[in-house]
Amino acid sequence: MAAEEASVYVDGASRDGRARPPWRSKNVLALGVVSLLTDIASEMIAPLLPLFLTTTLGAGPAALGLVEGVADAIASLVKLWAGAVSDRVKSRKGLVLWGYAIAAGARPLVALAGSAWHVVAIRALDRVGKGLRTAPRDALLAEAVPADTRAAAFAFHRAMDHAGAVLGPLLALFLLTQAGLELRTVFALALVPGVLSLFVLAWKVREPARALPAGPRAPMFAPPAPGEWRLLLPIALYTLAAASDLFVVLRVQELLGFEGSLAALPLLWVALHMVKSASSWLLGRLGDSRGHARTMALGFLALAVACGGLAFASSPEVALAFALVHGVHTGLVEGPQRALVAGHAAAHLSGAAFGRYHLVAGVLALPASAGFGLLWQWGDAASAFLPAAGLALLAAACAARLPAAVKQT
Fold first, then answer.
1. In the beta sheet, which residues pair with residue 296?
2. DSSP characters over 283-331
3. Mean pLDDT across the stretch 255-272?
4. Cβ contact 313:265 at 8 Å
5. What residue ranges do the domains of the chain occupy?
6. How far apart are CA 306 and CA 319, in angstroms?
7. Phi/psi of residue 13, nearest 5 degrees
8. Is CATH 3.40.50.720 what the domain over 22-202+225-400 is classified as, yes or no?
9. What's residue 212's pLDDT?
10. DSSP SS3 for 206
11. What stretches of 107-182 show up as alpha helix (H) in DSSP?
12. Rounded to whole angstroms, how far apart are CA atoms 324 and 184?
């Protein structure tokens, strides 16, 4: 879509009669609320799972960590399949709705778990639901706005997602400490925001039927085009470099000591996601004005700085500062990264492009986390964070060589 067309691309008007900014379409707003509610439901459970497993079920975290990684890898394969399928049907919304419904129904079942393997199975089902919805949803978001405002749309969506990761733990903490509820009851109540998200998705997201291209269909799992390979390379390097939030929190815990970390770590978890939400909203939109590739490269550089700082930090205050930089980098990466994926695909094949993107990110997340943990265990924190900083710098160099312009589809 031409830039001059983008200036009048609106989905209705605001209540005061003024036209909405192009990225703020009704679908973008509705999908943002869906993500907010879904993450509230998810984060009412996820931060409490270690406590539930050790105190209620008497299980250790080692086996669960491995199976969780495998479940995420399986979910990535589902994302690839769901994205390709969504290109072949006239509406992507059905797949998105089914994905959110499976996850919303699966999560509260943790309340009924009698063993660690029950939790593993429920978490795997939750991740399959996420795999089913993610690529079609991202394609819906890309189609809801002009190409030159996609970074803003994805940045808003990621900001809402991270906001849910702030509100979910706080709500769970309130229910446990102030309302006096048990863990299983809190897990069961996660059904409420999950069901609300389905209502918002069903009644507020509107997708016009798409005219499928005439002629023979492209192969369902067609390989990326040459330009897309150039994009997936820095994304792959970044995935290998991006240390999980868990490792960032553990680094701060290492410097705080056990007693100090008991009170500080829950607050750090909330603070990290507050920073992620704010940076996604405030910085993610820069891609539309400064160039998606350039903004993403800047985010990779910020990750390198964060990892280098965490490697050499000698006090909890310094580690906390670089942990927050680690949170800031996501805002520079997530929105522009998804805008670039959409820009490298034809409109009728964007689902498959997002499927490939999520496959790369999901499959590499397992060796990235396992390798990071092993390097730390065999050496120290610097032995893990310094290689991550080097990979982030390499990803930034590759991203800086990408074309600045996003293809208008």
1. none
2. HTTHHHHH-HHHHHHHHHHHHHHHHHHHHH--SHHHHHHHHHHHHHHHH
3. 66
4. no
5. 22-202+225-400
6. 9
7. -130, 160
8. no
9. 64
10. coil
11. 116-143, 150-177
12. 32
pLDDT in tens, 186-213: 999 999 999 999 999 999 998 876 666 6
Mean pLDDT of 244-266: 69
- The secondary element (H helix, E strand) that includes residue 69 is helix 61-86
121 three-state secondary structure: helix
CA distance 197 to 200: 5
10 Å Cβ neighbour count for 180? 8
205 φ/ψ angles, rounded to the nearest 5 degrees? -90, 120
Going by C-alpha positions, the residue among 193, 140, 180 that lies closest to residue 342 is 140
| Cα 329 to Cα 284: distance, rounded to the nearest angstrom | 10
Contact call for residues 116 and 57 (beta carbons, < 8 A): yes
Question: What secondary structure does DSSP assign to 227-274, as a single string?
Answer: HHHHHHHHHHHHHHH---HHHHHHHHHHHH-HHHHHHHHHHHHHHHHH
Tokens of 131: 């795999």
Q: How far apart are CA 153 and CA 292, in angstroms?
A: 13
Please write the tens of the pLDDT for every residue from 300-345. 999 999 999 999 999 988 999 999 999 999 999 999 999 999 888 7
Give the Cα separation of 70 and 65 in Å (integer): 9
pTM value is 0.79
Reading the block at residue 337, the tokens are 């990264």
Backbone angles phi, psi at 91, to 5 degrees: -140, 130
**pLDDT tens readout for residues 30-74:** 999 999 999 999 989 877 776 676 667 765 544 545 555 666 777
Amino acid at 180: G
